[in-house]
Amino acid sequence: MIFRTEVDINAVEEKIQIEDSIFSIGSCFASEISSKLADGQLKTFHNPFGTLFNPFAINKAFQKIYAGKDYTEADLILANDLFMSLDHHSSFDSRYAHKTLEQINSKLQSANDFLQTSKWVIVTYGSAFIYEFLPKNKIAANCHKIPQKFFNKRLLSNDELRQNIAESIECVKDICPDDVQILFSLSPVRHTKDGMTENSLSKAKLLTAIHDVIPNYSNCHYLPIYEILMDDLRDYRFYKDDMLHPNSQAVQYVWEKFGNAFFDDETKIFINENSKIQSALQHKSSDEEGPKHQKFLESLKQKINTQRQKVKHPIFSDLDF
After folding, report:
1. For residue 165, what pLDDT is reported?
2. Per-residue confidence at 119, pLDDT binned at 50, 70, 90?
3. Given a cut of 90, is residue 297 above it in pLDDT?
4. Where are the alpha helices (DSSP H) in the chain?
5. How big is the CA angle at 87 (ends 86 and 93), to the nearest 5 degrees?
6. Rounded to the nearest 5 degrees, what angle is found at the Cα of 47, between the Cα atoms of 43 and 52?
7. Helix, strand, coil shares, percent, the chain, to 5
8. 226: how many CB neighbours lie within 10 A of its CB?
């Protein structure tokens, strides 16, 4: 008897290789996958504007990265004694305009440089809702804890969703190498503050728009991350205490399915060995000066050096050996 519905990610002919650059942008679930890529010591760059949720904000981020033009103080607003950009996540906010701009522009230029060499771009949408900041008549990527009365909340129309997704694809194709592959996914995290019915409508509109647009592009693919959580892992034991965000077990399950579909054999071996090293690095000894622990460190150092010889880009660069 079969007691669950398993959802697979279809294998692709084009595979991720160990020297490929992987750019990711979008919701907080995208951060989970990006973190896994980074732990595997692949070249990755994630969310230069901070966590973004809707296609409008993500498209605007791509356009800004493509233009490569620095933000200025005129692009910031002052609220709650903090200087902030409505295009960015609140993690960029600071008490001083120059500090906010330093963070924003540093990430912007790094993202521009990285995208120009990126073979893979992963886009994860979380919501079709947008918030229009009334004092500036501008759509905000995040609300930065500004009171709700200053915003008008609405759903993006179907045409707006399709337009922003298509413009993002065209922008990525312009800035990235010709063989870039773009992977789209829908975040499984429910936006319960919108309301359960409203969240379902938002997700449905996003899913429809993605599938309306990507068949027009041979280099675009859909990752059924949403379906894996909703239909395959449909049990609250796969969620964190908030009952909204997937837990580590669920993330690992998705990660393994993603790897089986998209990593070539060399990349799988490379990531697996790096995962073993990462686990070993967590080891704590009660006698760090003892000969047994020193032998362990020497063996670990040799394994890391072996891995370093496999790639041109720096790996385990935060270590002093």
Report:
1. 98
2. very high
3. no
4. 28-39, 55-67, 97-115, 158-175, 196-213, 225-227, 248-262, 265-281, 291-308
5. 60
6. 150
7. 50, 15, 35
8. 21
186-197 confidence digits (pLDDT tens): 999 999 999 999
Element (H, E) at 83: strand 82-84
Kindly state which CATH superfamily the domain 21-266 is placed in. Answer: SGNH hydrolase (3.40.50.1110)
Q: Is the dihedral of CA 106, 108, 112, 117 positive or negative?
A: positive
Report how far Cα 106 is from the mean position of its chain's Cα atoms.
18
Give the tokens for residue 290.
Answer: 């003892």
Contact 315, 307 (CB under 8 A): yes
CA distances from 189 to 42, 196, 200, 203 (A): 26, 12, 11, 10
Find, among 250, 205, 257, the residue nearest to 230 by Cα: 250
Give Cβ neighbours of residue 74 (< 8 Å, ≥ 6 apart): none
Q: Is the pLDDT of residue 321 over 70?
A: no
Instruction: Judge if pTM exceeds 0.85.
Output: yes
Least confident of 24-28, 170-174, 194-198, 290-294: 290-294
Domains of the chain by residue range: 21-266, 283-321
What is the predicted pLDDT for the residue at 137?
95
Strand 118-125 with 21-26, pairing = parallel
The tokens for 227 are 């379906």
Q: Kindly state the tokens that stand for 234.
A: 């449909």
**Dihedral angle at the C-alpha atoms of 143, 148, 149, 152, nearest 10 degrees?**
70
| pLDDT(302) > 80 | yes
